[in-house]
Each structure stands twice: as structure tokens, then as C-alpha cells.
Amino acid sequence: MAPPHLALSAPSPWVLRFAALLPEGGTVLDVACGGGRHPRAMLGRGHAVTMVDKDTTHVADLADRAEVLTADLENGSPWPLAGRTFDGVVVTNYLFRPLFPHLCAAVAEGGALIYETFARGNEQFGRPRNPSHLLEPGELLTAFPGLQIVAYEAGIEGGQCGRKVVERICCVKVREPVELPG
Ligand SMILES: C[S@@+](CC[C@H](N)C(=O)[O-])C[C@H]1O[C@@H](n2cnc3c(N)ncnc32)[C@H](O)[C@@H]1O
């Protein structure tokens, strides 16, 4: 059977909605990219894409069009993108809290962080159940000091195909109000 992340091929509507905030042709980093559903969508929108995962075999086909980095982000090695910034930073269905400051620092001035993952309560419906992989209620609201929150959602969603508990945020490194994408 395919690993769970490979079953996810459609981009998240949340990511697509807030991708509209990113400048045309801007740079995008996807952290823990899995099968590359968001890098693929971002390439389709004309962005210059960098992606990182400990297992990049499922995005090997993108290596001629994007920067594909293979790195274990949890083994104590230095953050592989130190000193680099991106117009968009995307993280979905992945949580490793020590990365929060690196994610924040990786957002360029004027850029956006788009994050969506499972939250506490999800254990009643399925995986992940490990608390270290589940956000605490409201956790994303305080995870990225210095970034301005544009939108946040938290709750249960899904129907017959399975319910889940999620938290999502989009925040930006700008001071002024931004035009909300529809
Ligand atoms: C559930 S998948 C999500 C994939 C993708 N973000 C998505 O939403 O389609 C989680 C991803 O995290 C990656 N991952 C897990 N532990 C990691 C680590 N220590 N370092 C880097 N990537 C890791 C896995 O290889 C997998 O691709």
C-alpha cells in the first residue's frame, strides 16, 4: 500500500487560497513535501520552488524544475536552509515544533507562511494520534511571533471519507493589512 502521504495528491484548498498572496514568480519553500502536491501546484503557478523532506524519492521527477533537498529535519543537524528566505513557506501535515523559529526566519519580508496540520482531538478519528504530532488548541496562533496573522481556522472537518481535527494559519511578514484572497 502507498504511504499515507502519497494518497494525498490534491493540494489543500487553504494553501491554494493563500498562495494568492505570493508575488508572481516568487520563491516558495515546502517543508516535509512528501509526494510534492504543493510544490507541484506552486510550480504550476510559476513559482521558483525549493522543497525538503527526509525522503525525496517521490519528488525525484521534479529535480530538473525545482530544488529538491533531502534532509532529516529532526536529527539535530543544522537547519538546511539557514540564511535563506522565501516569499512563501508551506507546511502541511507535518509538525516538529523545534522548527518553528526556522520557519519564521525563512519568510522573506513581504512573504507568507501557510501552515496546516492535525490538532489535538484527531486521535478520536485516526492517525496521527501521537501528541507530538498534534497541535495544541490555538498553538499556531502564538507559534510565529513577529508575523501578522491573516487567517486562522481550527476544528473538525470531513465527511464520509473520514473526519479529522485540523488547525490552519496564514501569516505574513508585513505590517500593513493585506488584501484577503477569496
Ligand atoms: C504526512 S506527510 C505530508 C507530506 C506533504 N506535506 C503533504 O501534505 O502532502 C509527512 C512528511 O514528513 C516527512 N518527514 C517526516 N519526518 C521527517 C524528518 N525527520 N525530516 C524531514 N521530513 C520528515 C515525511 O517523509 C513525509 O513526507
Can you give a write-up of this model?
The structure is a single chain. By secondary structure, the protein is of the alpha/beta class. It has one domain: Vaccinia Virus protein VP39 (Rossmann fold, 3-Layer(aba) Sandwich), CATH 3.40.50. The protein contains five helices and seven strands. The mean pLDDT is 95. The site of S-adenosylmethionine has 17 residues, from helix 1. S-adenosylmethionine binds next to helix 1.
- The global form is globular
Task: Note the main sheet.
Answer: 7 strands, mixed
Low-pLDDT sequence parts: none
Oligomer: single chain
CATH superfamily: Vaccinia Virus protein VP39
What's the order of the H and E elements?
A: HHEHEEEHEHEE
Characteristics:
Rossmann fold; 29% strand; 16% helix; alpha/beta; 182 residues; binds S-adenosylmethionine; 7 strands; 7-stranded mixed β-sheet; globular
Short description:
The protein is an alpha/beta fold.
Please describe the topology of this protein.
Elements (H helix, E strand, L loop, with lengths): L3 H4 L5 H7 L7 E5 L5 H8 L3 E6 L13 E4 L15 E7 L7 H6 L1 E12 L20 H4 L5 E10 L6 E9 L10
Parallel strand pairs: 1-2, 1-4, 2-3, 4-5
Antiparallel strand pairs: 5-7, 6-7
S-adenosylmethionine (SAM) binds next to helix 1.
